[in-house]
């Protein structure tokens, strides 16, 4: 997806909806039942690292791996002893010398961070306590792996952001509080590297902070009109895609080099209610895919369209990158 100097507000990107019924007719749909507890909900799914396995993590701490080739459940990695006490808000993947691990962020008052080994048959788990802030909830609400090995970041219900360092031999971890000021829960963290290593944090306070790790300070702050649920690094340099609390324009493209009053571009679809902060889409180059409250998947194509042609049952769009897209003709 590309940015621009001028801001636009409107669903200008090509959008396609895929319903479960359509996927089933095309032979694409397959349902796999994972371990779950009563009132359990999914929290994160992760792409395969190198072993062809998809990892699924739930609110109550059930961790499953699924073979992507056969699309069959392989095994349950973790069954928590007290599922109702796990309360996982977020998770991320980190690569350690001993293999892939999952970082679990818990919305509880102690052992708010867990490090779970995913590669061994007897998966090992380590727990860490986050530094407490007086009079504030201690739970972790967001985590992300940093681009530097053995490091990850966490955001909390106490409005603070911490940078964690894992010791390679003992797997002990220490946390350093970063000088990032949010006035509400931190909801998303994303690492970037342009001229230096940076960390972007977004909160329910509608603030998006750009923190430079080398100078140890916030170098830029963007103010949004709506609470930011999720963030994604876009293909275009210096551009980030935000998922926000809105019923029509759920997504915003922002150029973080400047602080414009409006987003570079806003797009979305009509929905009678917002998705909530635990809904999450995915971005790959110029394409963004997300789910909606009606069980459909929405695919947005951010390429610049330079030619459009009507056919009998379709219309054809040619992009600036010499690609053709075929769409059902809504007026045929």
UniProtKB/TrEMBL annotation:
It comes from Hericium alpestre. This is Uncharacterized protein. Residues 1-10 have a biased composition (Polar residues). InterPro entries: WD40/YVTN_repeat-like_dom_sf (IPR015943), WD40_repeat_dom_sf (IPR036322), WD40_rpt (IPR001680). SUPFAM superfamilies: WD40 repeat-like (SSF50978). PANTHER family: TRANSDUCIN FAMILY PROTEIN / WD-40 REPEAT FAMILY PROTEIN (PTHR47232), TRANSDUCIN FAMILY PROTEIN _ WD-40 REPEAT FAMILY PROTEIN (PTHR47232:SF1). It comes from the Eukaryota. Residues 1-26 are annotated as: Disordered.
């Amino acid at each position: 997806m590309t940015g621009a100097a001028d801001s636009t507000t409107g669903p200008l990107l090509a959008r396609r909806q895929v319903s479960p019924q359509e996927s089933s007719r095309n032979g694409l749909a397959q349902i796999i039942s994972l371990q779950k507890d009563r009132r359990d909900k999914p929290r994160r799914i992760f792409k395969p690292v190198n072993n062809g396995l998809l990892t699924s993590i739930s609110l109550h701490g059930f961790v499953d791996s699924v073979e992507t080739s056969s699309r069959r459940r392989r095994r349950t990695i973790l069954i928590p002893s007290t599922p109702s006490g796990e309360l996982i808000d977020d998770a991320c993947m980190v690569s350690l010398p001993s293999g892939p691990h999952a970082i679990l962020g818990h919305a509880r008052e102690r052992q708010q961070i867990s490090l779970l080994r995913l590669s061994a048959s007897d998966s090992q788990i380590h727990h860490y306590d986050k530094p407490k802030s007086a009079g504030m909830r201690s739970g972790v609400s967001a985590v992300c792996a940093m681009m530097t090995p053995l490091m990850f970041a966490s955001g909390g219900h106490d409005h603070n952001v911490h940078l964690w360092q894992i010791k390679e031999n003992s797997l002990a971890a220490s946390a350093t509080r970063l000088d990032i000021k949010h006035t509400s829960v931190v909801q998303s963290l994303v690492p970037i590297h342009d001229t230096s290593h940076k960390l972007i944090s977004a909160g329910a306070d509608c603030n998006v902070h750009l923190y430079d790790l080398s100078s140890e300070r916030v170098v830029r702050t963007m103010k949004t009109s709506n609470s930011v649920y999720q963030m994604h690094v876009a293909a275009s340099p210096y551009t980030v895609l935000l998922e926000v609390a809105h019923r029509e324009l759920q997504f915003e493209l922002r150029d973080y080099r400047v602080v414009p009053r409006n987003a570079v571009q806003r797009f979305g679809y009509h929905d009678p209610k917002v998705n909530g902060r635990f809904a999450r889409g995915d971005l790959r180059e110029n394409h963004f895919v997300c789910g909606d409250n009606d069980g459909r998947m929405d695919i947005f194509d951010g390429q610049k369209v330079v030619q459009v042609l009507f056919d009998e049952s379709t219309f054809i769009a040619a992009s600036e990158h010499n690609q053709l897209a075929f769409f059902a003709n809504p007026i045929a």
